[in-house]
Design goal:
Number of domains: 1
Structural class: mainly alpha
Family: Belongs to the truncated hemoglobin family. Group I subfamily.
CATH architecture: Orthogonal Bundle
Bound molecules: protoporphyrin IX containing FE
Radius of gyration: 18 Å
Pfam families: Bac_globin
Cofactor: heme
Largest sheet: none
CATH topology: Globin-like
CATH class: Mainly Alpha
Keywords: Heme, Iron, Metal-binding, Oxygen transport, Transport
InterPro entries: Globin-like_sf (IPR009050), Globin/Proto (IPR012292), Hemoglobin_trunc (IPR001486), Hemoglobin_trunc_I (IPR016339)
Length: 131
């Protein structure tokens, strides 16, 4: 069989947002900023009372990962199961997304990309918001 692809470079896969933002290291910086914003917000602090910090960090990484489409396969609890005991309000959900947008802005991400990211998170609202 003739190899018609010989000598032809493989088509570049469209980079994920994760790659566009600069990969693991850049995203790590966004996670840190995001984490500070969420924990400094008096309206959000109660949700995280008693949640250990490792778990919270993991939460932030997952959250960012979901937004950027860079998650390793996720085998944890469903979004509904993970959040239903928290009675997350629509307002709280909105605040968290706003803090993510703020962290991304500070990290130099352009507005259009931030809009795309926010759109990706929106469908999760119906699973996470239960109050
Ligand atoms: C798109 C939005 C969100 C995503 C992708 C997300 C993702 C996750 C994931 C993956 C977990 C871990 C589940 C586990 O380890 O079993 C989790 C737990 C948690 N999430 Fe979220 N989350 C979102 C929004 C929120 C919001 C808006 C709040 C609060 C205002 C919140 C508060 C928490 C807390 C407190 C936990 C820990 C629960 C526990 O350990 O008992 N999350 N979230």
């Amino acid at each position: 069989m003739t190899d018609t692809t010989a000598g032809t470079p493989a088509p570049a896969a469209t980079p994920t947002l994760f790659e566009q933002l600069g990969g693991e290291e850049a995203v790590g910086a966004v996670v840190d900023l995001f984490y500070d914003k969420v924990l400094s917000d008096p309206d959000l602090q109660p949700y995280f009372t008693g949640v250990d910090l490792d778990r919270l960090k993991q939460h932030q990484r997952r959250f960012i990962g979901q937004a950027l489409g860079a998650t390793r396969p996720y085998s944890g609890r469903s979004m509904r199961t993970a959040h239903e005991h928290l009675a997350v309000t629509e307002d709280a959900f909105g605040r968290v997304v706003t803090h993510l947008a703020g962290a991304l802005t500070e990290a130099g991400v352009d507005e259009e990309t931030i809009g795309t990211i926010a759109q990706r998170l929106l469908p999760l609202k119906q699973e996470i918001v239960t109050a």
